[in-house]
Design a protein that fits this description.
alpha+beta, 15 helices, single chain, Cytochrome Bc1 Complex, Chain A, domain 1, globular, 13 strands
Length: about 425
């Protein structure tokens, strides 16, 4: 069968998405809690999700938990986490072999679903909070992740740049949270945060894979029916970031070998896929303007990339280079964007970009997790389209639309992370 997709609002702030394709032999169930990003809840939400998949009130040992999953044909229950604009989405994902393909038709999907629901609704909590041993372990994991985020200097530059790009918006916060917030997490307070998620967070349920997964849908919905839920906030994933009156420029000098340049552009042009196509032509492919000119022809940078945050309508270009090349690289990046705005690209370049983007989109049909991610992203864009439907739209995009999208891009923020010392070592990985 071809992909069967449907989305249903179940009331009380719960959305159910079904995505079935019988070419798959596995089934996956995702349960996401959606909350507005806040510096005070990023670390706590991350810790809650890690604790929920460690054990539950019925299987209190992580070792025993893993053994049971292995017995069920190597099934898995893992953290599900992503961001969509100003919102954080955290929860659980259960994956297992479809019952039709087990030895003798053993019914395992229901058992795995029950384990996930026990983790979610019946965690290992007593009067002191979550299991203290696992609380300390997982809290340290969160702290370590925050600390590690500054060791990757390219990632660090993007984190610091986003604080300025989205200043005053929820999206200014790092996906890892702040170290001071992670350090002060307390067990009993975390339980209250967990109960608040169950009660008032928007819930997105996604069931994907073989259509045999349908038999577990009612089991998941019945579990939510037993939970009191109220004061569910309305969500609009697409909240465009306002353009600054004048481009803002920042430079930070740290212990780094290679200069990192991040440039953010904001736009009022509101066609997601024309923007994506333009940005791929500009800097998102090995044959893009930035790759062929800034990196290859002029040798101004070691790496370059351009991406589009469609929920914020922001294009971010990041690159790494020798310090002396920074100003020239900025000028050339702007020049290449201006070239596209003037239509200075060939039909072959545009056709190759369309082909590359469509190939990437269609690859979302290759795995259950990619298929689920595609449709999750779709409804954050207020769309309900398959990869094939989007590709049909892309093939109709004209040169004039690409030029118009490029013209609409306005420089908003420039963030530079450069070496503190006068001399640079060669080529940082």
């Amino acid at each position: 069968m071809s992909v069967s997709f449907s989305k249903t609002e179940c009331g009380r702030g719960i959305g159910l998405t079904r995505i079935y394709d019988d070419k798959f032999k596995s089934v996956c169930s995702y349960i996401f809690f959606v909350t507005k990003i806040d510096k005070h809840n990023i670390a706590s939400n991350s810790l809650i999700s890690k604790l929920l998949i460690t054990s539950n009130s019925k299987i209190k040992s992580r070792t025993a938990f893993n053994k049971e999953l292995m017995r069920l044909y190597g099934s898995s229950i893992a953290v599900a986490s992503t961001r969509a604009g100003d919102y954080q989405m955290i929860g659980l994902c259960a994956s297992c072999l479809c019952d039709k393909f087990t030895i003798g038709g053993e019914q395992i999907s229901g058992k795995v679903t029950d384990m996930m629901l026990d983790c979610l609704f019946s965690p290992d909590i007593d009067e002191n909070g979550f299991n203290e041993k696992y609380f300390k372990m997982r809290k340290q994991d969160v702290i370590d992740a925050v600390k590690a985020s500054v060791n990757d200097k390219r990632g660090y530059a993007l984190i610091k740049a986003r604080k300025e790009i989205y200043k005053g918006e929820p999206s200014e916060n790092s996906a890892y949270g702040e170290l001071d917030e992670a350090l002060k997490l307390e067990n009993k307070a975390l339980v209250e945060e967990y109960r608040k998620l169950l009660k008032s967070a928007r819930v997105e349920i996604i069931v994907a894979g073989h259509s045999d997964a349908e038999k577990n849908v009612s089991k998941i919905l019945d579990a939510f029916d037993k939970i009191p839920r109220d004061e569910i906030a309305d969500i609009d994933y697409r909240a465009f970031s306002p353009l600054k009156p004048e481009p803002a420029a920042f430079e930070e000098k740290i212990d780094v070998n290679q200069t990192k340049l991040v440039m953010a552009f904001k736009t009022g042009y509101d066609d997601i896929y024309v923007n994506k196509l333009m940005i791929m032509l500009f800097g998102g492919a090995p044959f893009s303007k930035l790759f062929m000119n800034v990196r290859e022809k002029l040798s101004l940078c070691y790496y370059r990339a351009a991406g589009f945050a469609d929920t914020k309508n922001v294009m971010i270009v990041d690159s790494g280079m020798e310090r002396e090349n920074c100003e020239r690289a900025k000028e050339e990046i702007l020049a290449q964007l201006d070239a596209i705005a003037k239509g200075d690209f060939t039909d072959e370049e545009l056709d190759n970009t369309k082909l590359a983007l469509c190939t990437g989109f269609k690859s979302n049909n290759d795995t259950v997790s990619d298929m689920a991610a595609w449709y999750l992203t779709q409804f954050t864009r207020n769309e309900l389209c398959s990869p094939e439907e989007i590709c049909e739209r892309l093939l109709c995009v004209t040169r004039e639309q690409i030029a118009e999208a490029a013209k609409a891009m306005r420089l908003d923020t420039v963030y530079v992370v450069s070496p503190a010392e006068e001399t640079e070592e060669e080529n940082e990985n």
